[in-house]
Structure formats: structure tokens, C-alpha cells
Write a structure and sequence with these properties.
The complex is a heterotrimer of chains A (about 775), B (about 160) and C (about 260).
Chain A (H helix, E strand, L loop, with lengths): L17 H5 L6 H4 L5 E7 L5 E7 L1 H4 L4 E5 L30 E2 L5 E7 L2 H10 L1 E6 L36 E9 L2 H6 L3 E9 L11 E6 L5 E5 L4 H12 L6 E4 L17 H10 L3 E4 L2 H6 L6 E10 L5 E13 L5 H10 L11 E10 L13 H19 L3 H8 L6 E2 L5 E2 L5 H12 L1 H4 L3 E4 L2 E11 L10 E7 L5 E5 L8 H13 L6 E4 L17 H28 L7 E2 L3 E3 L5 E3 H7 L9 E6 L8 E11 L5 E11 L6 H20 L29 E6 L22 H13 L10 H5 L7
Parallel strand pairs in A: 1-12, 10-11, 14-15, 21-22, 28-29
Antiparallel strand pairs in A: 1-5, 2-4, 2-6, 3-5, 7-15, 8-13, 9-10, 9-12, 13-14, 16-17, 18-19, 19-27, 20-21, 20-26, 23-24, 24-25, 27-28
Helix pairs in contact in A: 9-10, 10-18, 14-15, 15-16, 17-18
Chain B lengths: L2 E5 L2 E5 L8 H7 L18 E4 L2 E4 L5 H4 L3 E3 L5 H14 L8 H14 L5 H7 L11 H19 L4
Parallel strand pairs in B: 1-5
Antiparallel strand pairs in B: 1-2, 3-4, 3-5
Chain C lengths: L2 E7 L3 H8 L4 E3 L12 E7 L8 E3 L3 E5 L4 H5 L2 H7 L2 H6 L5 H6 L2 H7 L5 H8 L2 E5 L3 E4 H6 L7 E7 L5 E6 L9 E8 L2 E7 L6 E4 L11 H14 L10 H23 L1
Parallel strand pairs in C: 1-3, 2-3
Antiparallel strand pairs in C: 4-5, 5-8, 6-7, 6-8, 9-10, 10-11, 11-12
The chains are: A alpha+beta (about 775), B alpha+beta (about 160), C alpha+beta (about 260).
Amino acid sequence: MPEKTTKYVGKAVRKKDSLQLLLGKPVYTSDVAPKGALVVQLLRSPHANAIVKTIDTTIARKVPGVVDIYTWQDVPNQRYTNAGQTYPEPSPYDRLILDRHLRFVGDPVAIIAAENEKAAHKAKKLIKVEYEVLDAVLDFRTAKDNPTLVHPEEDWLPLCDVGGDNHRNLVASGEEKDGDVEDVLAGCDIVLDHTYHTRAVNQAMMETFRTYTDLDRYGRLHVLSSTQIVFHCRRILSRALGIPKSRIRVEKPRIGGGFGAKQTSVSEVYPAFVTMKTGRPAMIVYTREESQIAGSPRHEMEVRVRLGADKDGRIRALDLYTLSNSGAYGEHGPTTVGLSGHKSIPLYTGSLEAFRFRYDVVYTNLQAAGAYRGYGATQGIFAVESIVNELAEKLHIDPTELRDRNMVRQGMTMPAYYNEPANACALDRCMARCREIFDWEHRYPVRDMGNGKVRAAGVAMAMQGSGISGVDVGSATIKLSEDGTYNLVIGAADMGTGCDTILAQMAADCLDCPVEDVAVFSADTDVSPYDSGSYASSTTYVTGKAVEKACTELIDHICTIGAELLGCDAAGVTFEGDCVRAADGRTASLTDIAYKAQVSNNCAAEVTATHSSPISPPPFMVGMAEIELDKLTGEVRVLEYDAVVDCGTPVNPALARVQTEGGIAQGIGMTLTENVTYNAAGKPIESSFMQYKVPTRLDVGHLHVEFESSYEPTGPFGAKSIGEIVINTPAPAIAHAIMRATGVWHRELPITPEVIAMGEPDQA
Amino acid sequence: MEIKLQLNGRAVRVPDVDPDTTLYDFLRAQGCASVKCGCETSNCGLCTVFLDDVPVLSCSMLAARAAGHKVTTLEGLQAEAEEFVGFIADQGADQCGFCNPGFVMNTIALLRENPDPTDEEIKAYLSGNLCRCSGYEGQLRGIRRFLDSRNSRKEVPHA
Amino acid sequence: MLSIQNYLRAESLDQAYQLNQNKRSHVLGGMLWLRQSDITVGTAIDLCDLGLDTIEETPEEYRIGATVPLRKLEHHPGIAALTGGAVEAALKDIVGVQFRNMATVGGSVWGRFGFSDVLTVLLAADSEVELYKAGRIPLETFAAMPYDRDILTHVVVKKTPGPMAYSSVRIARTDFPVLTCAASCLQGEYKVVIGARPGKAVVVRDERGLLKAGLTPESTKAFADYAAETVPTGSNSRGSAEYRTHLVRGLTQRMLCRLADKEG
């Protein structure tokens, strides 16, 4: 397919909402929700595993301003999952709105509806609960087949066979392979075997979870929520509340960040339940603490890697076993784990002779995990990229050269990635370019800066996907207005990423019109065409293609109406952006056609198109970190982080760059400052921004991003994706740099000053 | 209690304010939707407003304490903000936007105090403004481009 | 959730003192810490109208009003010159500019918080506090006193000459410190102050005369070992006692070396 010449695709167009956002206009859920809604608050479990023996709300109800209080006895008895996934969800139906069995510190015990915050807060303290405290499973390494069951209930319901078994604390388990990994390992010159541990880090988007609900003018449940998944959310609410989907409308305004957190329906069901019970508007706003302790963070994983190679650095076999901690509920458990292998092993398609990937996903009595940018790939890539760096060190081969010898290249088929083809792959060029801009040759050698400080560098590669192959559905409706401008209506969710804008850029290039002439609206289940939602790096690639299709079809319609105006055959006219031209040179302006569409017309001046892809083309990336490390204190400063990304065609290079920089900063946080620990009773320690340290601008160093484009033939304008891959390289690259500076490999995140200062080298 | 203060140049008098009302809640109730809350522990900077032209965290200040003072939110600084926010938009660094009002407010405070800051001074002054989307680099580029453009305009000799 | 029943701007220190004798009263500082407590305050006493927001200079001392925000202290040229930049070094990483525009010197010192950069650096200087009833007390004595219902009105930094140095270890740049260390040699007396142990800052003096012969690599090492032996450390989410003791030793030596550089 030839590369199209474009006017907007490939240009740094300003985000359509940027001035609204930068000037502080009221565009978020809390800003646009009508005032006077009932305040909804949740009483949360202080225990990691307990049964509500008795609960007495009598006194609490007497607090002036309290409207009602609901307990497990008041909610429907039908299990569901909060995971925003395509039906049938791989995540098990293991939740009730309120359950008598409390499974983590923070699990909701009661829903309080009050006229104001003070009354709700006071009532919360006056609810009397008697708990039967049970033993809790707090270490995910002991969860499988533990006598304590997180989900002993008989109505635990898996919709898909993902190898789960609630009587073994298993959410999912499985095995995949290609070739005989043991056989190949046995023949290797060197076999490395290490285990890497990453924690349940939090997305920490600036806007916490929040939802407003009321009954609309038809008496239907209207949900205004900060969500990435309006359609899935409607389905989840329908099941949880036991009301038909036709009685529910879900819409999202602007979203104050998501990063996957809002791919789970964390907050929606509570005010929705209150509104259904009381008939009154209701609103819940999670505190930061609630977002930290009862949100939907990354799955904690432990990945054991066995790597087999030849002396000359040919990587011949990879054997992964991932243990994933889903926490108290199974949201995204069966799916995230897959990416720990699928998005790490294929990086070495160039030389691999065999691989095996096995996994278990377990329940524990800790906060339920969810979807966080990278979605398992981040964890797997930390392990695989780290062990490849360990191999380079062992063999005394430059780690970038080692990768050159083994990496996946364009045209290869990737057995560890569902045998998908690498249609478009510039990973080799990313490596070459990153080496150049970073000045790898001079920065890789360790330099003593005096006063106990050393500088060192590290490297890592990454891949991700672009949508979920054979599952994700994107749709776009494009309509012509009277003045020849367009409305683009989508169900994807711009959470700050800029997808509204990049989809408009595509539409403008397809329709040969100014991008300002494409107004975008998203997302509302009553209005938007069906879209799985914005997750899995799908929007540019999947929904973008739907936009392209819709525009192509709309041009046909415009030509039909134009031909009628011109009194000629539709096949004989051509679309020229602002008009339709007949073979004899006569034209009908777009405005005339648009008006014609509203008079005596049988051809819609609007089109809805849908797209799904059987493949999920991976974007690729190389990241290099330079650090300065204080050998006495163990403090690490990231001085420079350079990255080169192959996202196919960068549709909007400014937005793609900021996505990359933002992902790198989150990766740096995960590696160095964001810790997740619990006390002996399973209560989270890092429950606020005072304790959970997302990096400030003093912590990230200088970031420099470039693109090495490839052209993905199945993507819109050659695009793949950018949203998730960008978080994957910092952990292995920085861990590598720290090893170069100290001689110690750190295989557990975060790598804090203490573990660096007190770290001991491996006993060889 | 009654609270009187000057909000964005306008005298405001509100009877019956609870003594423990934060300035953040007070301002939101006054329709200043630009003021956001991201943390409740004084760590994120989203709630930044000016008290007598000094940037403070409205989530951690009593409305009562602001009584009698001049309070400014982004609603009252639209023109000053418009001078430079386009440079942030050109970088795509606005992203989700939830931290933008606090960031814009504190950048205005910085530039009033130090009209030609170095990159290091910018980072230090804005370190209490968290952003989870941008990685900060685009915000820095935007401010730098704004300063460059302003400085180059200044350097044009008067004809 | 903080609940306040009455808010009162004191018109005199005496009024503030009298009101504060009620156990349910609370003198407001910067409010940054109080705001996060889940308590009910009867009367919140605000000192903001009492003119305590200035730093007065006399030939002998700087007298810092209780409501002076940290950022004003951080940028005070006289105090910067006196302490060789140590005060600014101690304050600049506390959360952010807006936070330091609100947090007060009085609130920070009154709190005697374990994590306090402020207390650490002021203990290394020649400092006193001025209390409404009890009058002037050396800061070191005050730091060890139990909380009472007096009112802190000023913190005094005397112009005792001598080099000072400050350093802290932080996991993230604007986080609470894992450990703080300040060193000074005022009129020939060496002091090393260790804070965020994680307990309240303590002062280590050269009681064994290890530095009598001056600051050499050997003497600073010996003093650092002495500090590591004597300063009690504990564990919390930011670091273990063992790591903190390692830092006590390392930072003490570093700060003494820095004093040596400053002494020339």
C-alpha cells in the first residue's frame, strides 16, 4: 500500500481541548455534574479477610442528613466483574456490590448516602460492625493451594476457561511453547536462571475515581463517569444492578488521566445503586487514599527466566514462569499475565530456537489489581531485558551489540506472539539511532565523578501490541453538516492522550478538509457507535482504521448526493474536498450537497463504520538511561533518558513524544521511588501521595525522544500504537545502569537508596 | 461564620461558612472550577491559588484564614495565562489537563517572581506541581519556548 | 476529617495564651499537618494578625516570628550568609514552593517532628525559642520538652560565627528525608545533628575530643564512627535502622569534610 501524502497526519496539531484544559474550564466529572447530588461514601473493611457477622446502622442512620445506608443484605446476589473487557470477559465473575465476605483492607462494607460530606463521614463512624476475622493470604508466593481460600463461594463464575480454580486460589494458569526448551537449554554454552519481582504500583492519575448518577428524563439510569470504557461500563452496571442495558446511559466528560485505572469500573456501581434505590442524583469522589488502596493497580508479578545462549551471544532459548498476584478479585488477571511472555519473548525472535511460557495467577487478600499501562508486558520486559543485560555482562559483549545479534526484524514471523508477522519493524534502526543520540560509546563506560559519585548507563528494548487481535472493535460515525463541516462521533475515550485530535487529523486528511472542520464527540452509549473503549493501545490503530473506513464511505455518499445535484451518474464524479466535480468540469459545492442532503434525500450524509483487526502489530522501542549514583547513600539521579520509538507512523509527533516522555517518567517512578508495602495485617502503607512518591520534575532527569518510523500496512496511515510501550524500558535500563555503577544486580523493584547502599554482589 | 474576601478582583461575602471549610471547598462553591484537588495531603499542587499574590495550596488552608485577603484563581488570570499556555498546547503537554490549572498558576507566580528563569530554577519552583501524564519535559519545553519568544520580541529594536 | 468548631484570630498573645489553656483549643501553624488529622478542635487560634510574620535583625541575632513561612526563611540573605547556605539547603526540598509558603517556622519547630529538616538545621545553628510564658529557652532544651500549652512566638538564631553544612538523603527529591545531617563549628565547638532517625533530631558533640586536633580524614572518620555508635536509629517504610546508621556514619564524615573545606 502506498504511503499517502497527508496534510495533518504526521503533524503536531494542538489538542482540540487544549485551551479548555489549560485555562481551567469546567470539563471534568466533578465540574459538570449538577450540584445537590447525594454524597456517597463507603465504609471499608479494616481487615484483610473477614466475615461481617453483624452490622448495625441504626445509630448511623439517625445522623441528620443521612438518607440511607446499605449493607450486603440490600444488594443483588449476582456476581460480576468490574473488568472493562469484551464479553465474555476472561476475568471471573467474583464480586458482589457489597459482600458479607470481605477480602482485603478497603473492601466495601456499607454504602452511605447523605445530603453532605460531613453527615456521611459522621455516619461512617457510627456504623457498628462485628467482624469474624479470618486468616489472610498476604504473600502471593503462598497463595496457590493455600488452605485459606479467598473465594470459597460456590457461585464463583468464570465465563472463559482460563485455567482458574477458586478452590486453589487460582484465577488462571496456563502454558505455551514452541520447540523443546529443555532440549535447547541443555545444549547451550551458558544458562542463566533468575527471578524478577515487580510490585502493585498505582496509576496515580491526578483525577481520582469519580462518578455522578441520576435518572434522566425518561427515568433511565444516567451515569456520568471518568471512565475509559463507556460501553463495558454499561454492561457491567446492567449485570451488577440487574437492570436492562436499555435502561442505562453511560457518558464520560474529559478524564483527568487513566493509564488503565479507569478500564475497570471502580467507582460507578455505588452511586448507581444509590440512585436506583433513592431515585435521587448521587455522586462519589474517591479520596486519594481510596484510589491508592481500593483502585486497580498493576499486577504484582514474579517472573522466573531461564535463558540459554551460546558463547558468541546467540540467545537460543527462553523459559518464563510468571506468578501474578491478582489480589482479592480477578479483574484483568487472566489477560495481564499473558503479556509478560507474549511481549517479551518475541523481542528475541531473531535467534530463538525454543521458548516456553508458563503462568499462574493467584488470589490474595490484597487490593485487587487491574489494568495499568503496559499490562503485564512491563513486568515481563523487566525480567527478560534484565537477564539479557546479565548475559551481556557475563559474556563481556556490549549489550546493544548483543541485541543486534538476536532481535526481531521486519519480515520475521514471531512464534511467541501468536505467529504474527512483524510487518513493520524498525527495532534495529531504533537501536542504531538511540546509540547515536545517547552517545552510547562514551556514556556506557562507568565514570568516577569524585566524592563517591559514579555515572553509568543502561539499555533496554520493548514491544507492546496495538489493540487486542481478533477482539477489539472500534467504530466511528462521521456526519456532514450544512456548511460542509463534519462531526466525528466515537466511543473511544480520550483520557488526555489526544485521541480525539489524532482521529480528527485522520478524518481531515481522508476528507481533504481543515482539521478545524472536524468536530469530535466522545463518548456516550446513547450516541456513540460501539467501541470497546480506549485501552490495550487500540484507539489509534483500531478506531483510527474505523475512521478511515467511515470517511471513505461518506465520500461515496457525498458523491451520490452530489451527482444527483449535478444530474449525472455517481460513478462519474470525483470528490475534491470542498466540492464534487463531474466529468465535464461542473462542480457542486460541499455546502450545496450538505443542504441537498436535508431536502428530498434518500442517501444519508453520515456513515458509521466499524473495524476490528485479526492482528495486533507491535510497536518497538529502545531506551537508554544515564544515572549518577552516590555510592555512600545509594541515591540515584537519572541524568538523561533517551528513547527511540517505532510506533509506525507517528500521527501527531508532539502527542506521541509527550506520551513517550510521560511513560518514561512513570517507568522511572516504578523503578526508583514508587513502593508498595503492607503491614503485617495487610494494610497498605503507601496510601497517600505523602507516602507513595510519584516522581516530581526533579526526579526524572532530561528526557529525549525520537521516532524511527515504520509503515504498518494494516494500520491507518501506517500507524501502530504508542500509549503503553513507553513505560516498559526504564526499569530494566536503570537496573542495568545501577549494576554498572555498583556491580550488583537488583531484581526487585523499586530499587531504593537503601538496597543500593546495602546491596551485596551475587555469590558467584 | 461570615467570610468576606476579594476573589478575582470582586468583593465576596458569604454568610454561614463552617469554620473548618477549606479554601478549596469555598472556592469550588464560588464556581471556581479550575481549582482541583488531587491528594488531600498537600503534595500535588493541583489546588494552587494565590493568597495576596503568593501561591498557596487551597486544600490546606482554612477559608477563614483567607478572610480579608485577596484570593486569585485561574478564573481571574485568564489573560495572563493566555500569554503562555498556547506554548504548552503546542507541545501537547496539556495532556489530561487535570494538573494544568495548578501548574499554570504556579508558573505565573514563578514568572512574576523571576521573569527569566533557568531550566533548573523552573524545575525547582514547580517541583510541588505533580503531573502524571507528561513526564514534565513538554511543560519545560513549552515554558522555554514562551520565554524565548518573549525575549526575542523584546530584542526587536523599536523602528 | 478535621473538624473545627470555632475559628478565632487572636488579638493579643495573652488572649491566644488564655484560650489555648483549654485542651480542646489548637494554635494554627501552617495547617499542613493539622489538616490531615481526624480530630475535633474546639477553638482554632490563628496568630496571623499578631505581626509574627517578620524576621527582625539585631547586631546579635535574627529573631524569626512564629508565622514566618519557611520560604521566607529559605530566602533570607542574612541567614543565608550566616549559615553558609545551610538553611536554604535544608528547606529547599520540602515538598514545593506553595507548601513552603504556608508551612511556618513556628509550626515546624513547635511540632518537633522526627522528619524535620528545619529542626535539624536550626539545632546546628545557635538557636533558641521564645515562648510566651516560659520565655527564651535553648532550642535543644525545647526539643526535649514534652508538649505543653505555652505558645511559641519566635525562633532566635544567634549570630555566632562558624561554618555550617547540611545534607539529607531522600528517596525522591521532595519526599520526607530518610536521614538528615547538619554539622557546624560555632566558635570552635563542633556539633553534628542527626534527624529523621526516624526519631527527633539529636545533637552529637565532640565529648571525646576526637576533633581536638582539627578535621583530618582520620579524625572525621573517628567522629563519624562515634556518631554511628551513639545516635539511636530505627526502621520505618523509608529505611531500616541498619541503613540509617550507615548513613549517620557516612553523612557525618561528609559534613565534617565540608566544614573543613569551608574553614579552608
